[in-house]
Predict the structure.
Amino acid sequence: MQDHHTEDQDRRHEHLHLSSLPAARAGEETPRKTPVTDSARNTSKPVRVRIAASPTGKCHVGTARTALYNLLFARQRGGKFILRIDDTDVQRSTTESEQGVLEGLRWLGLEWDEGPDKGGPWGPYRQSERLQLYQRHAAELVEKDRAYYCFCSPEELERERKEALANGRMPRYSGRCRALSRADAEARRQAGERPVVRLKIEPLTMSFTDLVKGRIELDASLMGDPVILKSDGVPTYSYATVVDEHEMRISHVLRGADHTTNTFVQLQIYEALGFEPPEFGHFALLLNPDRSKISKRTGAVFIGEFRDEGYLPEAIVNHLALCGWNPGTDQEVFSFDGLQAAFALDQCSSSNAIFDRSKLLWLNGHYIRQLGVEELTRRTLPFLAGAGLVPSEPPAGPELERLKAIIGLEQERLKTLYEAPELVTFFFRDPDPAACLELLKTDRFARKHTPDELKRALAECAAALRELEDSSWTALPLKETLEGEAAKLGWKPPELFMPVRLTVSARQATPPLFETLECVGRSATLRRLLAVAGAP
RNA sequence: GGCGCCAUCGUCUAGUGGUUAGGACAGGUGGUUCUCAGCCAUCAGACCGGGGUUCGACUCCCCGUGGCGCUACCA
């Protein structure tokens, strides 16, 4: 009897441990019939991974990173990447609110193979559209006596919880309704009461081998019986996820570390349902700069915000990849294909990482410099149009050529697309002469001479420059002319070049002066020089 | 409170008993240069604390401490 009980427990225990390595059982007398190793299972099933997104209306960086890791894993194994909407929280979920999440992922280039918008063999891909499935399995669990109806009221539960806390005990469900007979439960349901369904937790010492964190253990006897179906018939997260992972043939559940502990409840649900659990891997979380849980309070955490701030999707993907994973080499810059080749779960960090903005900014600048001028111009267009510098319909012909020249000049000083309008405005609009004059008084090079001397010099420059025809208004002749003027004045080059720069752009930093003048154009340059030279 | 996970420069991290503890971003300095940016060079900067184990610990073990997570009819 005793033996039988032990063996029974042991067997169940084993079932819950399918993912543990056989080595952990070394010395066991009777070897398992078919010892299953992680690697054996990995190759025996087609790889299907998923991102389970809450329809919160926005795509969170954490969600994006998890999606990326899943996608990379799927692609390198020739598997499928599935997008599922976990919208069982009726309060927060609206039909439109999933749109933001989809947009964010898509903008990053993290395209899914199956999802709510494109269907697939195991849909629907919204949990709210699968309620009957959960309810059916829940009824089976009650039938099999692995779950039971619980009629305890939320108030009652809350009171017990507080009481336990006050007495320093762990708050967990007492299991009172376990004792209810099936007949009583049925009668009360007929009478109109709306119970929840709770899973009967087996008080086992459990463990599983996490693909990124290694072996993790937990004593299930410390858990209370969890609700799997709420009184309104909607499943709880842990339960719905188990049913879906199974029904959708998910082979590897790769998700955030906030789900590590939940995994044990889920393993018990798999066991109760008679489903073989998938592999699990939990990624360490992304944190705020103060090491607190990441939140919208502390700056941008949504993909859409980064897009609006002029970040490139490839920079974000690259940075996200490096936040929690490393290639084991000194390489920092990765294309998506490069990531796909290098990514590995066992190189993923198991300690939390701060989402570092400055490194992202550097990467963004790097990718901007890498882009062809044509492509960079195309991507910058929406920002320029937003600032009213160019019409919203894409320019063509000479207009486009000029725009490309301008963007080309600013390319290596651009860290985000968002900065573009501010940097290039002066190519399109004359600056305020008064503002230029102010700068002439404070700039460290211009300061070498009095405002009157400067105005005279600018007027002379204008006169000299006027001699250049439109056709020879290019960097080299411009350089020769202005160098000649500086020599004539007996000034060091910067003492003249800087005032010219300030006069033409009202900015202390611009691309190289002569290329800049070329792009600003003959008439605008002369007009601006004269405006400041003749300013009061 | 209980349980789980984690702990190397400011940040992301490499490192698996013996290393000048390496790289990248950010910061400092210098060079290139008409400014800025870029590029190049260079400097500074870390093993949470305490006990063990060991000839020898960043590395292994234990205890603290700290962070994060879970402990819901949220996901």
